[in-house]
Design a protein that fits this description.
Number of domains: 2
CATH class of the largest domain: Alpha Beta
CATH topology of the largest domain: Rossmann fold
Largest sheet: 3 strands, parallel
Radius of gyration: 16 Å
Oligomer: single chain
Strand order of the largest sheet: 3-4-5
Number of strands: 5
Order of helices and strands: HHHEHEHEHEEH
Distance between the termini: 20 Å
CATH architecture of the largest domain: 3-Layer(aba) Sandwich
Structural class: mainly alpha
Helix content: 25-40%
Strand content: 5-15%
Shape: globular
């Protein structure tokens, strides 16, 4: 299982850019905790809620996100999916925005950037969902999802961000390519 936001896409960057456009907050901020208002100078809790509402009102917001994974790693992912026997599922807990469904937006983004027809599922209950799908290994960045995965017996790998560095007992990767090499060290493009 591969998470989407802040693994494939750069949701954090998009959030900071929208906050900057709305409130003039800085763009170059290290997200150190899950709540943006706690680490973005000049952003209050109420202002953060306005940013979330603007995201919900933006038509097909998820299709516009920049890539977080490098182009090389996205191509490696495409080859990995096409050339190996591993089943890869993309599971995200995104909330709805205007326009297409979250699933449709996510599929279109992955088709555009990875070049494959993905299997995408949307759920906030990743642990039980992955257990039902018999997922062996999951890559995620969100501390609450990582905990949920572990609580349901799913081996997890942490996509390294400063807000999840308190998780020290699990494998950690800095790139999507590192995750692919962790799964299959002999895989090459």
């Amino acid at each position: 299982m591969i998470d989407v936001d802040d693994v494939l896409t750069n949701f954090n960057k998009a959030f900071l850019e929208l906050s900057h456009r709305l409130f003039g907050t800085p763009l170059d901020v290290q997200i150190t905790v899950w709540d943006f208002y706690k680490c973005v100078p000049g952003l209050s809790y109420e202002m953060e809620q306005i940013v979330w509402e603007k995201i919900k009102e933006t038509e097909n917001f998820y299709e516009t996100l920049p890539a977080y994974a490098s182009q090389e790693d996205l191509l490696m992912l495409k080859d990995f999916i096409q050339k190996t026997d591993y089943e890869v599922f993309f599971i995200t807990s995104r909330f709805p925005t205007r326009g297409r469904t979250v699933e449709e937006q996510t599929v279109l983004w992955i088709e555009r950037y990875v070049g494959i027809k993905p299997r995408v599922f949307v759920t906030s209950k990743k642990g039980i969902f992955c257990r039902e799908l018999k997922i062996d290994l999951a890559l995620d960045d969100a501390p609450h999802h990582i905990e949920d995965l572990m609580n349901h017996g799913i081996s997890a790998v942490v996509m390294d961000w400063s807000y999840n560095r308190h998780i020290t007992n699990l494998p950690r990767v800095k790139t999507l390519g590192e995750f692919i090499k962790l799964i299959d060290p002999s895989f090459s493009r």
